[in-house]
Amino acid sequence: MAANHNPHGPLSQLTGYHLRRASSVFAADFARAMEGTGLRQVLLGILAVVSANPGINQGSVGRLLGIKRANMVSLINELIDAGLVDREVDASDRRAFTLKVSRRGGAALKDALVRIELHEQQLLAGFTADESRILLDLLGRIERHEPAVD
User: Fold this and answer.
1) At a CB cut-off of 8 Å and minimum separation 6, what does 105 contact?
2) What is the C-alpha separation between 51 and 107, in angstroms, rounded?
3) Which of 7, 12, 64, 75 has the smallest CB count inside 10 Å?
4) Calpha distance 116→47 (Å, rounded)
5) To which H or E segment does residue 89 belong?
6) Domains of the chain: which residue ranges?
7) pLDDT by residue (tens digit) across 32-84?
8) pLDDT of 3 higher than 80
9) CATH of domain 33-143
10) Contacts of 22 (CB under 8 A, 6+ apart)
11) Which H, E and C letters describe 73-105, residue by residue?
């Protein structure tokens, strides 16, 4: 094999390819870091948003996280069944429900965040603090990009 041969060919120049590969590395290590907690990325995301916004409704949580409405009911039920989130009837709209993190959910979130901080420190050990901030900024700019609709 030639020294300058690139086995990935044109993939090596595609940002999306590298984002997917990096995401796979993060997801696999996240699963390892969270082993035994029962929390998957999506459940942790919901728990974090509810914790930051006590009294939020599940539709708002879904919109913030980009989760389809049809999937939110089962995800919220999973958190409620685990005793991590409490659901209450909204006082201003008796047809709606509000969510809040339970005491158990708060403890689970605190533990998860410690695990995730260590997981991210390990994966980003080769980055300076400035590089980590730049990476977050760049990824956020991609997240906020709305493709033009024809």
Assistant:
1) 47, 50, 51, 79, 83, 84, 85
2) 11
3) 7
4) 14
5) strand 85-90
6) 33-143
7) 999 999 999 999 999 999 999 999 998 899 999 999 988 999 999 999 999 99
8) no
9) 1.10.10.10
10) none
11) HHHHHHHHHCCCEEEEEECCEEEEEEEEECHHH
